[in-house]
Automatic annotation (TrEMBL):
Keyword Glycoprotein: no
Name this polypeptide is given: Hexosyltransferase
Coiled coil feature spans: none
Family, per entry: Belongs to the glycosyltransferase 31 family.
Domain of life the protein comes from: Eukaryota
Keyword annotations from UniProtKB, A to Z: Glycosyltransferase, Golgi apparatus, Membrane, Signal-anchor, Transferase, Transmembrane, Transmembrane helix
Membrane topology field: Single-pass type II membrane protein
Compartments reported by the entry: Golgi apparatus membrane
Any one cellular-component term (Gene Ontology): Golgi membrane
The organism of origin for this protein: Trypanosoma theileri
Length: 375
């Protein structure tokens, strides 16, 4: 075989292939950087987030070693619960911590955050505390290491709705909840770069964690949008607009679905706007008057082809005292919503020993639909 300056012809060919591959890859990356953040299907409808979350403020009450532990743990799912810096909500958080978050496999301070499910509370600044985080919140956060403090201002309710009862808090308060939901999903992508699923829940619900995890392990890792689905139709007769969305008491999204949601440019453009009369029409255009409707609308309008809707039954996701549907607690109950303070302990007493359940049956219908069944 011929040699040229110490190289065989074979080595020269390999070197040429390497150089050519490098040039092609470089051209690809360069062209990709020019279109990054835009979907080929929706054009400018989808873009990567341009607003980097202020992690210093968000994690100000979480020790650095805890944040590091979160980053190296192999969590299956993180659940964010938007809540408020007021005593009545603080009691609800404590009731969840002392009942359903005591199940095995829930990552808490007590077990050095080891488990499959990590639960965090996402709080904004409340007007009753002059839009400052209260001393009670600071003590709570230091005790549990599960409180994220968002750069979001809460609003006082303008209706007679109370905790644990169905209804509407008033438009400004509901827009604030939608904003916190968006911020939670956006933050979770930064804080947990490897988690498979990201969920949003409420502080007036109870979760049967062992059954929830047993079911989740059987579901797709990509494209998942799981929950109890509700249909909304526009009240305006001349407007034909219909949305199916997972109820906000507990909605579970795969990581790629969260990325699709927070990347939706029309939502990015309005979600951080201050609540003012001239912005109300924009908020309503994406159903920001209900955080769960907002998520459903964005996922519908984004037309994400990989979406897999997992529709659960009302025997499993249900309300206890008010709302639709109201059901009695049965062996099928998985997510029980609109609780009284006395209900958390009752539910834990009933289901607390059920720590090794079998997954529920479901039927796969084509690529994009999963239907659960009741036992």
């Amino acid at each position: 075989m011929a040699y040229v300056k110490g190289f065989s012809l074979y080595n020269l060919i390999l070197f040429a292939i390497f150089i050519l591959s490098f040039i092609v890859l470089n051209e690809f990356l360069l062209s990709s950087s020019m279109i990054v953040g835009e979907s080929t299907m929706e054009g400018k409808k989808r873009s990567t987030s341009t607003k980097i979350p202020n992690l210093h403020e968000v994690l100000q009450f979480i020790p650095h070693d805890v944040v590091h532990t979160w980053s190296v743990r192999d969590y299956l799912i993180v659940l964010g619960i938007p809540s408020m810096d007021i005593d009545i909500r603080r009691r609800r958080r404590q009731l969840q911590r002392s009942t359903c978050w005591k199940y095995p496999n829930v990552a808490t301070k007590a077990n050095n955050f080891a488990g499959s499910l990590l639960v965090l509370y996402a709080l904004g600044r409340h007007p009753s505390n002059a839009f400052l985080f209260s001393s009670a919140l600071k003590e709570e956060a230091k005790e549990w290491y599960d409180v994220l403090t968002l750069s979001v201002n809460d609003a006082l309710p303008t209706t007679s709705k109370t905790i644990g009862v169905a209804g509407h808090w008033g438009l400004e308060a509901e827009v604030g909840m939608s904003r916190k939901t968006f911020v939670w999903f956006e933050l979770s992508l930064y804080i947990f770069p490897h988690v498979y699923y990201i969920a949003k829940g409420d502080d007036d619900m109870f979760m049967r964690v062992p059954q929830f995890l047993a079911d989740l392990y059987t579901l797709p890792r990509r494209g998942l949008y799981w929950g109890s689905f509700v249909r909304w139709e526009s009240p305006r007769k001349k407007v034909k607009d219909k949305i199916y969305y997972a109820a906000g008491s507990c909605m579970i999204l795969a990581r790629d679905v969260v990325e699709e949601f927070v990347s939706y440019k029309p939502l990015q453009e309005i979600v951080h706007l201050p609540y003012q009369p001239e912005h109300v029409k924009k908020f309503l255009s994406l159903n920001m008057n209900h955080e769960d409707m907002m998520v459903g609308r964005v996922l519908r309008d984004a037309r994400y082809n990989s979406l897999v809707v997992a529709r659960d039954k009302q025997c499993r996701f249900h309300n206890l005292h008010s709302g639709i549907p109201v059901r009695a607690v049965t062996k099928n109950s998985l997510i029980v919503h609109h609780l009284l303070e006395s209900d958390y302990g009752m539910l834990m007493k009933r289901f607390g020993n059920d720590t090794n359940p079998s997954p529920y049956r479901y039927k796969r219908i084509g690529h994009g639909l999963i239907m659960f069944a009741c036992k």
